[in-house]
């Protein structure tokens, strides 16, 4: 993410950069419904709507919080490197229509709406780990609390002027730490509190709609160009273009690596593997893409694709129920991409910082480690505390009967697919009753 500091740059509003950033903001917004499709296809049919809603509700909750105080906490005047605040930004008051973000040629309003879309997406990522079993009210409250005490401060650490990670020199172009490690660690913290789904490692839990998964993955890939290339906050010096290219390159490499591992390990190239591999590559290149070359992007993507493919099976070994592999893809992929900056940074991209393979030694690697493990530890612990607080007060999980029968009907009074009119019902007789639609199961258990 381009830093929130004053740079030697033009001080006049650029219509081109402003338009570019508004388009990028819209692309990042698209990623939240894309994630809903991606996750929605991976669950059993009886949980489809709940999975969609767990992403969509973030668009409402986080948007309102961002206007009220989130933007101020994340990007306001620094306090001790930990949090920001600017009372003029509360309710987005005191911001002029043409007031520019410091050092850039885009209005403050454009910067804040771009950042808003990141804040919306990040808690939605967590939801995939909690499929089938969380009360919707509890989830909505968790999103509000988590955004306030975890996402807004961490965004300040990493991208805000004066944030400790920013000042240390941690490189996170578009969210490896602030978004993906943050969400992945939070997912682990919450599932350690709420426990496993009924039937975990016993019942088949296959995706009910792989076409929906592929649609979601494709839309995520598309939106990610705005997520990554837009994070330079302009299009004047070619760094955003480098990030665009590296986003495509790393994603393709990761998909190939995941499929190769899957073929060797399980004997087949699956559509779910292709979609998951692509997302793993997108995650990993997010922090690194402005610092590495396209050849480096191939390495980052390939390493991430392989590591994430291996990591998704760890939940069966260690017994934590990460329903849709948020930890295996986002936490592991975010760590991989962030740490690989310390090896593959060329010194010719977003800054002159070089990694180990380009003569820079291990100095940047240790900085990356500091950012990665600080965010991981903070998000893991605080998220677990929040989940425990909600679980002991209003309760985090639905009842066992509701989980078995289907969370869609229990929490939303709806079902994803209505087959009541299928098959020409008027022509049926009492002797030939309409067949009952049997719900498909979700993800296959990979022992």
Structure commentary:
Belongs to the ammonia transporter channel (TC 1.A.11.2) family. It is a multi-pass membrane protein. One of its GO terms (molecular function) is ammonium channel activity. The protein is mainly alpha-helical. It has one domain: Ammonium transporter fold (Orthogonal Bundle), CATH 1.10.3430. 61% of the residues lie in helices and 1% in strands. It contains 15 helices and two strands. It has a two-stranded antiparallel sheet. Helix 12 runs antiparallel to helix 13. The radius of gyration is 22 Å and the shape is globular. The N terminus and C terminus are likely disordered.
Key terms:
two-stranded antiparallel ribbon, globular, Ammonium transporter fold, 15 helices, mainly alpha, 447 residues, disordered N terminus, disordered C terminus
Q: What's the number of domains?
A: 1
CATH-defined fold name? Ammonium transporter fold
How much strand? Answer: under 5%
CATH superfamily: Ammonium transporter AmtB like domains
In round numbers, the mean pLDDT is 92
Helix/strand order: HHEEHHHHHHHHHHHHH
User: So what's the CATH class?
Assistant: Mainly Alpha
Question: What Rg do the Cα atoms give?
Answer: 22 Å
CATH architecture: Orthogonal Bundle
| SS summary, helix count | 15
Number of strands: 2
Keywords: Ammonia transport, Cell membrane, Membrane, Transmembrane, Transmembrane helix, Transport
InterPro entries: Ammonium/urea_transptr, Ammonium_transpt, Ammonium_transpt_CS, NH4_transpt_AmtB-like_dom
GO molecular function, one term: ammonium channel activity
Domain Ammonium transporter AmtB-like: 20-417
